[in-house]
Amino acid sequence: MDVYETPQSEEEMDVRKGPWTEEEDFTLKAYVNIHGEGRWNSVAHFSGLKRTGKSCRLRWLNYLRPEVRRGNISLQEQLLILQLHSRWGNRWSKIAQQLPGRTDNEIKNYWRTRVQKQAKQLKCDVNSKQFRDALRYVWIPRLIERICASSESPSGQPSTTAYTGCISNITTNQITYENTSGSVQVAPSLLPESSGTSSDSQDAQVSSVSELTDSYPNSMQTGSGSCSGNLAGTWNIDGGESMESVWNEENIWFLRQQLYDDDLN
DNA sequence: AACTTAATCAACCGCTTGTTA
DNA sequence: CTAACAAGCGGTTGATTAAGT
Q1: Between vectors from CA A98 to CA A102 and to CA A196, what angle results, nearest 5°?
Q2: pLDDT tens string A110-121
Q3: Domain check: are A144 and A185 in the same one?
Q4: Which residues constitute the domain of residue A18?
Q5: How far apart are CA A94 and CA A127, in angstroms?
Q6: In this structure, what DSSP letter does residue A89 have?
Q7: How many domains does chain A have?
Q8: What is the pLDDT confidence band of residue A163, given thresholds at 50, 70 and 90?
Q9: In this predicted model, what pLDDT tens digit does every residue of A180-230 receive, in sequence order?
Q10: Which SMART domains does the protein's record reference (predicted)?
Q11: pLDDT of residue A157
């Protein structure tokens, strides 16, 4: 590590690192409230904080800003993150702009801890075509169903009967998703978006899904029969609990339409 | 209760991009 | 045009907390 590099100046010698104290937070807040954001090196210099400008900026943006929302990421937010990531990739800051109050850091952490974990459990690369297709055709549709189900249920709790959809089959060539309105078969490898960026692990042996044991009732589990093998892992679509009333059917259909639009592009 | 492992998230680092002189 | 500096971004690390044994 370069922590022990010879400092360039006396100032750099006593630069503080690590977790912020309450006093530091207070100082930074007070300074920004008076002088506004920006010129972070000046903030660091004139506020009396022994922190780098970068550190001050990060602390303000990720923690001290009044708009920052913390806590569980709701189902709606998860859905947005997945969809926007499928469109923009690791453009965390751009994605964060679409989620008011959420920081790029938080979204990045969510992706790494929740989404990449699934990829790991499924033994496929997070950038592989299979995983991305699974996200688009398994995870996202099921999130949508959960959101719909939650919005239908007055208590906000997902209703058991709403979980009628299932992935009946995933092969290297096709994913079949079934729900009350019928079954949809997609050939992911034919989609332009999917075929572009192949990764080394694209050949990961994801041949089918026989079980999606997560927080869903048993009725949500996949059909049997057409599966030729198992994914070595489970889908765990865990979510935030808060349901926001602004997230209505109209929004859901808008997002669904976006999915179709993506497919067409 | 003690220990280990896993999960989470704040913060740092290095690189890139934008701005200004 | 270009060099220097500041700000922004994404990747990574490490400390803390929670869960499991």
Answers
A1: 115
A2: 888 888 877 777
A3: yes
A4: 12-64
A5: 19
A6: S
A7: 2
A8: very low
A9: 444 544 433 323 233 223 333 333 222 222 223 333 333 233 333 232 233
A10: SANT (SM00717)
A11: 41
Positions in chain B where some atom is under 7 Å from a protein CB:
7-14
Decide which of A107 and A151 is more confident.
A107
The protein residue nearest nucleotide B6, judged by CA to C1', is A113
- The reply to whether A26 and A138 lie within a common domain is no
Calculate the angstrom distance between C1' of B6 and CA of A219.
29
- A46 with A81, same domain: the answer is no
Query: Residue A121, CA: closest nucleotide via C1'?
Result: B6
Query: Is residue A2 domain-resident?
Result: no
Whether A7 is covered by a domain: the verdict is no
Interacting residues of A6 by C-beta distance below 8 A, sequence separation 6+: none
In a domain, A112, yes or no: yes
> Distance from residue A63 (CA) to nucleotide C5 (C1'), in Å?
26
Query: Domain check: are A79 and A168 in the same one?
Result: yes
Residues packed against strand B, CB within 7 Å? A 2-3, 16-20, 51-52, 54-55, 58-59, 62-63, 70, 105-106, 108-110, 112-114, 117, 238
